[in-house]
UniProtKB/TrEMBL annotation:
HTH gntR-type domain ranges (all copies): 5-73
Species for this entry: Streptomyces luteireticuli
SUPFAM superfamilies: Chorismate lyase-like, Winged helix' DNA-binding domain
Annotated coiled-coil segments of the chain: none
Keywords from the named record: DNA-binding, Transcription, Transcription regulation
Lineage: Bacteria, Bacillati, Actinomycetota, Actinomycetes, Kitasatosporales
Keyword Transcription appears in the UniProt entry: yes
Protein name (record): GntR family transcriptional regulator
Highest taxon, organism lineage: Bacteria
Annotated signal peptide: none
DNA-binding recorded as keyword: yes
Length: 260
């Protein structure tokens, strides 16, 4: 029985197989459009569609005027999700990829995360209002973060806090004031709000164009999104955030303690 797959998928799958088995190594140039057209008796549109599939999957990246090249897809490491960190709202620690013996892979080392942030007052969009349990349009403080390792962005995050909780206090701006950079729990504790739990929902979706430009991937490539919401003792949502990382380069690690 013949191959029933569309030709563009057959081309993309064949190229992926060659990359996975090492026939096309990282940095190698993908066969040109004319080469692929001859090899598969395909049209320009079919070949271009196959290459777009390859780019969207993170296997290749175009370089203007030079062609399309195989990208490095080896995991950079893990982002450890933990309650232990107090100096970042998103409690993540970056660890390099390790070999089976637990040693850092060549060229990979423990790297401290630094971040840049900007805050602005805005109206809560309907999905965010639902997560916070407030009416759409109510005032919230939105803070956008860009986390960097060796000056390269590895994680993006956007946080929303209801201004009914923090307005007029010393903690209204997460990155300024006497309680800056203490994380959600530490900051809100300073104004008498005790955060007792957080809930995370983990999913995936295509990267938006701004996310792709920031994270160094192709628009439409898969990213992992962590939707995290903090609650106080009255089960009131006091902060919610979206955390975005490249799905092909980072894994999320959760430490789950058990109590007797």
């Amino acid at each position: 029985m013949g191959d029933s797959r569309p030709v563009y998928l057959r081309i993309a799958d064949d190229l992926r197989r060659r990359i996975d088995d090492g026939s096309l190594v990282v940095g190698a140039r993908i066969p040109s459009r004319s080469e692929l057209k001859r090899a598969y008796a395909a049209s320009d549109q079919t070949v271009d569609r196959a290459v777009r599939v390859l780019k969207a999957a993170g296997y290749a990246q175009g370089q203007f005027g030079r062609g399309v090249f195989v990208t490095d897809r080896a995991p950079l490491g893990t982002l450890l999700r933990t309650t232990g960190a107090v100096d970042t709202p998103f409690a993540a620690e970056l660890h390099p990829a390790r070999d089976p013996a637990g040693r850092p892979c060549p060229g990979r080392r423990d790297t401290a995360l630094t971040w840049e942030a900007s805050s602005s007052e805005t109206s809560a969009p309907a999905p965010i209002a639902e997560r916070l349990g407030i009416a759409a349009g109510e005032p919230v403080l939105c803070t956008e973060y860009e986390y960097l390792a060796d000056r390269h962005p590895v994680q993006l995050a956007t946080s929303w806090e209801p201004l009914t909780v923090t307005a007029g206090t010393d903690v209204v701006l997460p990155e300024r004031g006497p309680y800056a950079r203490r994380g959600v729990r530490g900051r809100l504790a300073a104004i008498g709000v005790r955060v007792v739990r957080a809930r995370e929902l983990v999913g995936s979706r295509p990267a938006t164009t701004p996310e792709a430009e920031a994270l160094g991937c192709a628009a439409g490539q898969c990213v992992t999104v962590v939707e995290r919401t903090h609650f106080d003792g009255d089960d009131r949502a006091v902060e919610t955030s979206d955390i975005v990382v490249r799905a092909d380069r980072w894994r999320l690690e959760y430490v789950i303690p058990f109590t007797s």
